[in-house]
User: Which sequence fits this backbone?
């Protein structure tokens, strides 16, 4: 029995349930809209989540996947959740909930006596490990997103004061000879 | 011994879990990043808000005045008496839900209280209780609730998560203007002494110096001199704008962000270059040094006070009409409120006529104020500008319709007309994200405060998502807009969601393409970055 084929045959159900685990991060009153509106511009969070879950699911079950495509999908998902006012565990953690779904839907099949000795259990465990890989990648992405937010905040302050800074520098240059400024190591 | 929770338990991720309480009883959460810093007491007092006091949003006790209930009741009563529209908005909503999924904050947060219908319901429920018979008698069964201190906190969180962009109003069959409701609730909060620093500090500066940034006349002039130096470096032409001079035909008024902050300054340079090139008879003013109006975000009375300087200066200097720069909410104020706030116009003012083309701007007959995109589009239409769009060939641009010019004054075609003449590569974002249906930058109505950056990034996500699409599929690397707040708010938004896209005003692109009489061959753009397609040097051609 091929684990990839087995999971593929249940793909629609599993991806849908996984997506709903992500949507569980949001208030109940919003979930209906997130689930039913299928326009990527009218429902950007819902549809980005759905598209990302589809790509990531394929990667987890062992289908051929371009690393950049997988990274891109995970990036889209995590960078949204990183600014949605949820704790990091929640932002990233829903990825791991795929394991629970796989254990309910796929593992019982793998444990059937007729598949004993076929190596399918090893394949199953390898699949779960790929979920862990996604989790680790997501951790890096979450942290990168937060660092970007902090950098953006600093840069915004600089941008909003650009002409004042320029004026202040000019006045300082006028007040002090250039050599003194240089000697003090003032950055221009 | 306690057991470790499962991941499902830890994340509370059961898809069927129902909330423990209804929306009326769900309390807002205050933590750093979820609210703007409060306005300073002395600033509010100076502006005449008598209940100004020290408080902190994340404290349990907001130190409200003892008679806070009476103050709010009277405040709402006053608003209902003054604005018939508010009474209609309170009564006529049938909760059809057409607006529910149209708010960028709802789409970015998926918080139901950001659905415009529910945001308005935060006020409407109190209105029902205090001002309708059904609400008084039936209470919750009629959608009414008693005003308590948690309701005030809820208003503070959610009415400062509305950018007054009015996208929801576009879809409302009754045209309920959520922006107006938001302004009124913010006014009610100010009556309790509750305001935010980012807005009220700007209001205070504007009240004192004429502009939001508190730039004093000599500094404004010095800063603009810098920009003239830059123009000379780029074009070899010295531009010398008149200041506070009487007897000119036009006064030019623009938001202070245009001469103060990146990237607005490049747009300002564009204005100066254009006016010099066409020989416009105009003056700048250090008194009317702000087109924007942060007062309009929180109070009609304050908005009126701040806006008055435009006509006062137009009268003092004896100009015939006002040319207005690239701003967003300024144009909502001008188009929808200025005539009633500060009208009638001074007797020296006339229906604007372009001195270059002779076009009569009848659309500005009431306000005597023309948007620079209308003015420049008219110049191009009459072939009055020598343009070399090839200078912008490295740019594939899209157009962000800034909410207020698009929805409050219908400025949709003019910027596009200009853009097509100054850029050879123009791509529209997807259909339902542009024109009247444009998505907000997520930071409008005074919410471009740095401390709520996360909120701004998620609120701006629907805009960025559409931009990302044309960036990925059409190679778009530039986004133009006609709003100073956009020029401040979109760069961080783009930096997070779509790195590789530059944000600029319209007249930066115009000036890049503008061939000025007597200029040196251009080798750099207005940001003094090398042009990938520089002008040919005539001297070099002759030598060859």
Assistant:
């Amino acid at each position: 029995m091929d684990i990839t084929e087995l999971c593929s045959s249940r793909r629609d159900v599993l991806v849908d349930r996984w997506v709903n685990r992500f949507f569980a991060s949001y208030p109940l009153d919003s979930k209906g809209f997130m689930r039913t509106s299928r326009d990527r511009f009218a429902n950007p969070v819902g549809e980005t989540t759905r598209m990302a879950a589809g790509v990531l699911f394929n990667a987890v079950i062992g289908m051929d996947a371009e690393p950049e495509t997988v990274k891109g999908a995970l990036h889209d998902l995590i960078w949204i959740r990183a600014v949605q006012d949820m704790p990091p565990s929640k932002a990233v953690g829903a990825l791991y909930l795929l394991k629970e779904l796989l254990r309910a839907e796929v593992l019982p099949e793998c444990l059937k006596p007729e598949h004993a000795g076929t190596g399918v259990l090893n394949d199953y465990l390898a699949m779960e490990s790929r979920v862990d890989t996604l989790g680790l990648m997501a951790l890096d992405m979450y942290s990168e997103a937060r660092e970007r937010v902090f950098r953006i905040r600093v840069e915004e302050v600089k941008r909003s004061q650009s002409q004042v800074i320029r004026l202040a520098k000019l006045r300082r240059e006028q007040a002090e000879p250039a050599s003194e400024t240089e000697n003090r190591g003032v950055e221009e | 011994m306690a057991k470790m929770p499962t991941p499902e338990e830890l994340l509370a991720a059961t898809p069927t879990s129902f909330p423990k309480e209804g929306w009326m009883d769900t309390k807002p959460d205050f933590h750093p990043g979820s609210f703007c810093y409060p306005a300073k007491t002395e600033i509010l007092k100076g502006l005449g808000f008598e209940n100004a006091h020290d408080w902190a949003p994340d404290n349990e006790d907001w130190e409200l005045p003892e008679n806070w209930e009476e103050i709010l009741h009277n405040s709402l009563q006053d608003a209902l008496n003054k604005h018939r529209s508010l009474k209609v908005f309170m009564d006529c909503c049938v909760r059809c839900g057409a607006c529910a999924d149209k708010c960028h904050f709802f789409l970015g947060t998926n918080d139901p209280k950001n659905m415009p219908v529910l945001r308005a319901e935060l006020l409407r429920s109190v209105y029902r209780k205090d001002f309708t018979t059904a609400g008084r008698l039936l209470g919750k069964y009629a959608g009414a609730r008693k005003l308590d201190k948690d309701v005030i906190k809820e208003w503070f969180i959610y009415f400062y998560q509305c950018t007054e962009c009015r996208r929801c109003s576009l879809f409302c069959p009754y045209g309920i203007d959520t922006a107006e409701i938001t302004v009124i609730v913010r006014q009610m909060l100010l009556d309790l002494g509750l305001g935010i620093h980012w807005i009220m500090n700007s209001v205070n500066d504007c009240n004192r110096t004429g502009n939001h940034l508190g730039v004093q006349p000599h500094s404004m002039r010095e800063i603009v001199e810098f920009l003239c130096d830059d123009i000379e470096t780029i074009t070899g032409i010295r531009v010398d704008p008149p200041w506070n001079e009487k007897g000119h035909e036009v006064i030019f008024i623009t938001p202070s962000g245009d001469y103060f902050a990146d990237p607005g300054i490049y747009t300002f340079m564009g204005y100066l270059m254009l006016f010099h090139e066409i020989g416009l008879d105009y003056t700048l003013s250090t008194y009317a040094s702000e087109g924007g109006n942060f007062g309009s975000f929180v109070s009609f009375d304050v908005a009126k006070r701040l806006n008055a300087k435009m006509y006062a200066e137009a009268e003092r200097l004896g100009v015939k009409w006002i040319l207005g720069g690239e701003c967003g909410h300024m144009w909502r104020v001008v188009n929808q409120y200025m005539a009633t706030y500060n009208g009638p116009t001074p007797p020296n003012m006339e229906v604007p006529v372009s001195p270059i083309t002779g076009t009569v701007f009848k659309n500005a007959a009431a306000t005597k104020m023309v948007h620079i995109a209308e003015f420049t589009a008219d110049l191009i239409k009459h072939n009055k500008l020598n343009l070399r769009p090839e200078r912008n060939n490295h740019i594939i641009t899209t157009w962000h319709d800034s909410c207020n010019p698009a929805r409050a004054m219908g400025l949709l075609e003019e910027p596009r007309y200009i853009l097509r003449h100054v850029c050879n590569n123009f791509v529209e974002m997807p259909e339902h994200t542009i024109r009247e249906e444009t998505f907000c930058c997520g930071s409008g109505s005074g919410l471009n405060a740095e401390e709520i950056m996360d909120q701004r990034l998620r609120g701006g996500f629907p805009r960025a998502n559409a931009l990302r699409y044309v960036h990925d599929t059409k190679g778009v690397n530039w986004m133009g807009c006609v709003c100073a707040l956009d020029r401040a708010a979109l760069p961080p938004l783009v930096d997070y969601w779509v790195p590789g896209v530059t944000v600029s005003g319209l007249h930066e692109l115009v000036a890049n393409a503008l061939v000025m009489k007597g200029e040196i061959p251009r080798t750099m753009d207005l940001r003094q970055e090398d042009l990938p397609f520089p002008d040919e040097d005539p001297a070099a051609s002759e030598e060859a």
Chain A has a mean pLDDT of 90. Residues 3-145 of chain A form one domain.
